[in-house]
TrEMBL record:
This is Alanine--tRNA ligase. Keywords: Aminoacyl-tRNA synthetase, ATP-binding, Cytoplasm, Ligase, Metal-binding, Nucleotide-binding, Protein biosynthesis, RNA-binding, tRNA-binding, Zinc. It comes from Allofrancisella guangzhouensis. Residues 2-700 form the Alanyl-transfer RNA synthetases family profile domain. The lineage of its organism: Bacteria, Pseudomonadati, Pseudomonadota, Gammaproteobacteria, Thiotrichales. Its EC number is 6.1.1.7. It is an enzyme of class 6 (ligase). Consists of three domains; the N-terminal catalytic domain, the editing domain and the C-terminal C-Ala domain. The editing domain removes incorrectly charged amino acids, while the C-Ala domain, along with tRNA(Ala), serves as a bridge to cooperatively bring together the editing and aminoacylation centers thus stimulating deacylation of misacylated tRNAs.
Length: 865
């Protein structure tokens, strides 16, 4: 039996023998393509090549592409585990022609591989073609020799392929394998085609067209070929099994699931779900996606949580999901080294996410149980479901499952409306982010000269105001955009902000406040403060030298920081984002925990050592292949051309980078970290300053320390001991104050009165200038001494009302503390709420508190009587 690993290699070797260049799989994140959430086909990395936008130094390629279908248009998540062939993650075998061979060769290669290389019986194979594709029909019949009966014409719903709503598309031919009469199902195009007997194994797309946003179709520059064959499907055929989950790779993973969970289940769909999901989760994390509540991170979180829930259905009693990573690495690590390199990160991320989810479930169940006590018509409102999701991270499908168990339903339509409103709010919040590709439609290619000079004589080619092209402008306070034929100004890119400076001409002065890119056009954004400017005018462009130098120092320091983090924290560190300007640098990176003070000092020490070493910063342009051979670090998320710019700082750091840099590391001067924080699950942020700003920060800290020592009459040797002594004195005094407040509350005479109503004690009082913590302590005392008591205590501090409500658990079926708090807060212009047995709130209308307490007394008596 051929293994999945052997089949993967056999496919690559066959097409390499046919002059195809083997290209590694691209990331699951389709960088530079906003139309896709995830890479879902082999051709995604070649989309720009098919469009004629990008050129490669080869015209034939073979790949084994990582693909994911769990979000957006292509979403198989809900089917996974319940069918024989649905997966979130799968591998797509593909061969491609970029204006090289076309239909005849593509069909011939596929047929030869299937029938000669892996020896599939010809009588088991059927093909479909696009209904009007007579050329493909003739190739199959006359050239390959397939009988007419085995060539089926199909309409556009199946045999005209497109990657999405826009992009490359064209007719296709598909090859089907017949699993035999013992399997239900009919031929493609028949009423029984949805059965499992005839399974599509290879799709060959003839890329002839490009579909635009308006639905129109135009010819591509050169006809090309895109093919795809699911590795799992063809492995199932060769291993003589009808389900992808029965192939060797999945059987190993399923066996590991059974072992880790110690389950007796053998055929449960949950086994398939967990085995499938560990692949998608591990590869997503390896490609830089981390769990979150939005976009790709939310899809990852949803897959992880679905796997955990199915694990618990199998009987998992403890955290288990991360334990499957090792077996996955054993099965797929050789083909995908990123699994080996990121194994630790994957495991840590899964552990944290499973711990978080279990905590979320625990908290969410409490809120769920409290909310369903007040529902009507056995329907959980969309507001409640959204509150559980938005505030507590409780997924809708879990809310629906729990509701179903209690004979309830969720108003999912109302929930979705809330989701849409939230998305709209997010959209509004981000409306000031400008996409300059939408603002202008320039075709000008600006020549950038800023690596070698900060001053350049140039010519004005285009002028834009409010997105409209104009011929000339006069001095005003209006912001406009200028396009020059050549410029020394660096446009914002790769985390580095655009240059600032001035454009000068005869009688004119233009202040450049920002520089951006739109395609290959560089936009100089600013104001004409003097004179008159027209298209065609000659000007001198001057970059602000001081700002450029400071920005370059911070950018070079970012490279040193990136390398240093890998050395001190580990190779799992991966850049997630950066911002570099003249004032500071900001660096976001993958790391699972806060950085200790000692580690921060180690980072600063190592970076400043590289600065003192005064390494030469060398910059060369070379091919991607040579850059990789040099060991250059390619930043995650960046899309590079065939020729790249390599920035080296001695032997310490080597990265691909298009930004501006210092000449020697000594020019950075000094490096100082000013903050370290977490910005998302598994993502940390460091902010730092360099040169004069770093020195100024250190001097300010020294001055502050000097002032502290003076005020405490301390010196270097006894400063800490004096501070510790002050802290102890403060703690002692705080305890004394708390005791005095408590004594005051206990001895407040007639301020607190107890009333009996049947066997229930009611206590309502307002005491001035007592903190909320003391009120809570007093309520706990009442509840400890009396198992049927309702207590409402309020205080006024700085004209603001604060109150606490306590209700013995034994009588919460009569009245809930949260309801009392909500009712009371309405009378004091505030908010309140909480649990059935304990709640609190506050308000701004302190003058109304006595009346409010009288009204709350009536409210309580009405409920308990």
């Amino acid at each position: 039996m051929i293994t999945t690993k052997e089949l993967r290699n056999k496919f690559i070797d066959y097409f390499k023998s046919k002059s195809h260049t083997h290209q590694p799989s691209s990331s699951l994140i389709p960088f530079g393509d906003e139309t896709l959430l995830f890479t879902n086909a082999g051709m995604v990395q070649f989309k720009d090549v098919f469009l004629g936008v990008e050129k490669k130094d080869f015209s034939r390629a073979v790949t084994v592409q990582k693909c994911l279908r769990a979000g957006g248009k292509h979403n198989d998540l809900d089917n996974v585990g319940y069918t024989a062939r649905h997966h979130t993650f799968f591998e797509m075998l593909g061969n491609f022609s970029f204006g090289d061979y076309f239909k005849k060769e593509a069909i011939s290669f596929a047929w030869e591989f299937l029938t000669k290389e892996i020896n599939l019986p010809i009588e088991k194979l059927w093909v479909t073609i696009y209904a009007s594709d007579d050329e493909a029909f003739d190739i199959w019949h006359k050239h390959i020799g397939l009988s007419k009966e085995r060539i089926i014409r199909i309409g556009s719903s199946d045999n005209f392929w497109s990657m999405g709503d826009t992009g490359p598309c064209g007719p296709c031919t598909e090859i089907f394998y017949d699993h035999g009469r013992h399997i239900a199902g009919g031929l493609p195009g028949t009423l029984e085609e949805d059965g499992d007997r005839y399974i599509e194994i290879w799709n060959i797309v003839f890329m002839q067209y490009n579909r635009h946003a308006d639905g129109s179709i135009t010819e591509l520059p050169k006809p090309s070929v895109d093919t795809g064959m699911g590795l799992e499907r063809i492995a199932a055929v060769l291993q003589d099994v009808n389900s992808n989950y029965e192939i060797d790779l999945f059987q190993a993973l399923i066996g590991k699931v059974q072992q880790v969970i110690n389950t007796s289940y053998v055929n449960s769909p949950s086994l398939k779900v967990v085995a499938d999901h560990i692949r998608s989760c591990a590869f997503l994390i390896a490609d830089g996606v981390l769990p979150s509540n939005e976009s790709r991170g939310y899809v990852l979180r949803r897959i992880i949580r679905r796997a955990i829930r199915h694990g618990h259905k199998l009987g998992a009693k403890e955290i288990f999901f991360y334990k499957l990573v090792e077996e996955l690495v054993n099965q797929m690590g050789e083909a995908y080294p990123e699994l080996i390199n990121k194994k630790g990160l994957i495991e840590k991320t899964l552990i944290k996410e499973e711990e978080l989810f279990l905590k979320t479930v625990e908290n969410g169940i409490k809120i769920f149980d409290a909310e369903i006590q007040n529902i009507k018509d056995n329907i959980i409102s969309g507001d409640v479901a959204f509150k559980l999701y938005d505030t507590y991270g409780f997924p809708l499908d879990l809310t629906a499952d729990m509701a179903k168990e209690k004979g309830l339903k969720v108003d999912e339509e109302a929930f979705q409306k809330q989701m849409q409103q939230q998305k709209q709010r997010s959209k509004e919040a981000g409306k000031f982010n400008v996409d300059y590709n939408d603002v202008i439609s320039s075709q000008t290619k600006t020549e950038f000269r800023g690596y070698s000079t900060l001053i350049e004589n140039s010519k004005v080619i285009e002028i834009y105001k409010n997105g409209e092209s104009i011929q000339n402008i006069g001095s005003s306070n209006d912001t406009v955009m200028l396009v020059l034929n050549k410029t020394p100004f660096y446009a914002e890119s790769g985390g580095q902000v655009g240059d600032k400076g001035i454009l000068e001409g005869v009688g004119l002065e233009f202040i450049v406040e920002d520089v951006q890119k739109s395609g290959q056009t560089i936009l100089h954004i600013g104001k004409l403060v003097k004179g008159y400017l027209s298209i065609g005018d000659e000007i001198t462009a001057r970059v602000d030298n001081k700002i450029r130098i400071a920005t370059a120092a911070n950018h070079s320091a970012t490279h040193l920081l990136h390398k240093t983090l890998k050395i001190i924290l580990g190779n799992h560190v991966e850049q997630k984002g950066s911002l570099v300007d003249a004032k500071r640098l900001r660096f976001d990176f993958i790391h699972g925990q806060a950085i200790s003070r000692q580690q921060i000092q180690e980072i600063e020490t190592l970076i400043n050592a590289q600065i003192r070493a005064n390494f030469l910063v060398s910059i060369i342009e070379t091919t991607q292949e040579r850059a990789k051979a040099m060991g250059a670090e390619a930043l995650f998320g960046e899309k590079y051309g065939d020729i790249v710019r390599v920035v080296s700082m001695g032997d310490f750091s080597i990265e691909l980078c298009g930004g501006t840099h210092v000449n020697r590391t000594g020019d950075i001067g000094l490096f100082k970290i000013i903050s370290e924080s977490g910005i998302a699950a598994g993502v940390r942020r460091i902010e730092a300053i360099t040169a004069d700003r770093a020195l100024k920060s250190i001097l300010e800290a020294e001055n502050m320390l000097f002032d502290i020592k003076n005020s405490l009459k301390a010196n270097d040797s006894n400063l800490l001991s004096k501070l510790y002594s002050l802290q102890e004195q403060l703690k002692t005094q705080e305890k004394l104050i708390f005791k005095l407040k408590k004594d005051l509350l206990s001895g407040s005479g007639n301020a607190i009165k107890e009333s009996k109503y049947g066997d229930i004690t009611l206590v309502i009082a307002s005491i001035d200038n007592v903190d909320i913590k003391t009120l809570r302590e007093k309520i706990d005392d009442y509840k400890t001494k009396n198992n049927k008591v309702i207590v409402v205590l309020s205080t006024v501090i700085s004209e603001k009302v604060q109150f606490v409500v306590g209700v013995s658990k034994s009588i919460t079926f009569l009245i809930k503390a949260g309801d009392i708090a909500k009712h009371l807060s309405e009378h004091i212009d505030g908010k309140g709420g909480g649990r059935p047995d304990m709640a609190q709130g506050g308000g701004s209308n302190s003058k109304n508190i006595e009346i409010a307490l009288e009204q709350i007394k009536e409210f309580i008596l009405e409920k308990i009587n």
